[in-house]
Amino acid sequence: MSNEIEAIKDPGLPAHVHRRADTDPKAAKKAERQVAILFLLSSLGTITLIGAYIFIPQDVFIFFPVLGNTNAHQLFLGLGMAASLFFIGMGAIHWAKTLMPDEEVVIQRHEFRSPDEDRADFVRTAKEGAAAAGLGRRSLIKRSLGLSLGLAGLSPLILLRDLGPLPGDSLTKTSWKAGTRLVTDPGDRPIRPEDMEVGAVAQTLPEIAPGAHRKLSDIAKDAVLLIRLRPEEFNLDAERLSWTHEGIIAFSKICSHMGCAVALYEQQTKHLLCPCHQSTFDVTRAAKVIFGPSARPLPQLAIKVDSEGYLVAQSPFNEPVGPSFWERSS
Amino acid sequence: MTARERIAGSVANYVDERTGAAKWMKKNLTKVFPDHWSFLLGEIALYSFVILLLSGTFLTFWFDPSQREVIYDGSYEPLQGLEMSAAYASTLDISFEIRGGLLMRQIHHWAALIFMAAIVVHLMRVYFTGAFRKPREFNWIIGVGLLTLGIVEGFLGYSLPDDLLSGTGIRIAEAIVQALPLVGSYLAFFAFGGAFPGEAFIPRIYTVHVLLLPGAFLALITVHLMLVWYQKHTQYPGPGRTEKNVVGYPLLPVYMAKAGGFFFIVFGVTAFLGAVASINPIWLYGPYTPAQVSAGSQPDWYMGWLDGLVRMAPPLESYIFGYTISWNILIPGLIVPGILFTGMALYPFIESWITGDKREHHILDRPRNAPNRTALGVMSLTFMMVALINGGNDIIATTFDLTINQIMWFSRIGIFVLPPLAFVITKRLCLSLQRADRDLVLHGRETGRLVMMPHGEFVEVHEPISPEKAWLLTQHEQNPPLALEENDLRGVRRPGVIKNKLRARMSKAHAVAVPKATAEDLKEIEHH
Question: Which among B274, B268, B258 has a CA at the least distance from the CA of A42?
């Protein structure tokens, strides 16, 4: 379209303009001194770094405006290092910009496409090579090679099998059993209902034998949050209400979305909020999802008190806790 | 000949007689590189990578990548006596016991953030100037690969200290893996060596973080740079610059001094940040335990958009024949990012299919002269920005006194409405800028000088612009859209009519432009 119409002409490279240092020896000398000063500043930086490393103890804090209370050792070490590097760079660039030749150079590009002759040669060579190997004719070799290469590719996958055990029922089972006591985390103390006032929240785990060690992978499934409301505040069906005890309700603390700890409880609204993705659960309605990306309520743990008056689980969780997975049935 | 010259000569002779390097060196030491500030963006990424290798090596000397439980007895009092993993304890030791350790940790983390930021901005420069066009499509794909690996590498890096914040991040990553249909729970158990969190994950990602991925980076960066070298750098349009030449400075000495100096400047600035700007103070978060979390949990910025997408997802799950499909995780966590990154990698081929342009391009486009491409780029960035804002919704809510719900609903609607809006606005802006360019060439620059004509009318004096400027504003090509007939010459319908129609429509949209000023337009104006 516009190619046929006369376009505005390219005036060509503008004439080169000399810098002062190119023509004036005095300016050149001055630039040289500036470069040297920059390099010297870098040396000062390195000396600061060495001095800070040796002479400033690691526990000295000093106050700086903006930065606040700052560790002097770390600060001067870093400032020294920064100066030592930064001024080498500044010196080199100032040198290049003021004293090295600044005349623009033009070189030519070449098309990447090979000459037709070379391309034809290449195709011929490739064809001849393939023909010499006889891949086209010897289909038995071709097929058996394909099979063996494919199978050989499987072996790394096979060898990675022992990276971990199969899931088994690990994702669906927790340590909670009928009668397991709820104990505080941290502290491992059993809890009586009268320990919790209305509005209180407690983080709990299943009781373990004294001296036994809790694995993080157990905590990742077992963590339970206890919340005490006034019984009349609940809006539950008869079964779920029977899972509570005197207004105390227990939920899995592991988010049903992506497994973070659902740690934020708003006493006023009686909402539980997961700080990772803001799924919000209504405690009065069995942790129903009222906002955010989670698709399921937090699993509720049925609780009661045992003969000594401590809170225990009535039964294990009736569904898997934590984020969804393929084999989960609902 | 001085003694020094004699020595240099004999070294060169020694090397050349054994390698024949002189011919190659002669050609390449005088290689010309065009100069422009935006060409430094990729360099920043490269230098940050070198800084990461150096500071990372320092950290490996003391870091213990193990989830074995230890009791902390170091000098940081608030955590003394606490059970924690050896990984977390050794990170505390690097921060408090090793001189320069905290500085190196902070330099390493800052360099990682700068590395990712430089890659993203470099990618934007390449995209908006059309530098990805033939013959540089391979390098574009390598670049998208480096960006993707960078996100993974960064995530693994900040997960290594095994603190409460990063452990929460690993938990979320585990939930994404676990959500995969069919193989999810198996993959998760293999990766973690059993149930989350297990004791195998930190040592495993350590190998990936310090060996596997840096190796992949080195290989890809090498190819990336070799291609830049071999294909010669693109250049911005201007007087004397053509598709057939390169105008700039020779490698030796100017470019070497500038690029070498720039490495030290990037390193110096990173060290300065490491000295004065605290980053990832893991001692404040405490050791990881699955039953706790800190409010305002945030990933590093380059993961924020992903977290934002996950946060805004609707609560959708399907339960089919006793199996669960978590759309609320799969769509934002895998499907949308997959589409975005695949589309980005394929974009050079999509554009050349639309325009039918199969020629080499070495002169960069001014973004306004490719309105469709520019608008698409701004549209994608808008999408990412909405996602990123939602990724920080808790922080924004507390900072600006909004509710999370307000921000979430803004994002949920905005993610659909704002990107197309950005596309339309950007395209209009590009065309307006083209019109302004045309006016500038035809009518000259406004001088701000008002003159009263004899009959009392006031006019502003316009001054013609320089020939160099006029050339810059008119050097670009304006190609007509592809003419794709539904029927071929004999009146037979071509196969793939719908595909052709789509292509023709996109080609037409791509070719929309304000006609650039020509010499004839100028002559015509002079006659008036």
Answer: B268
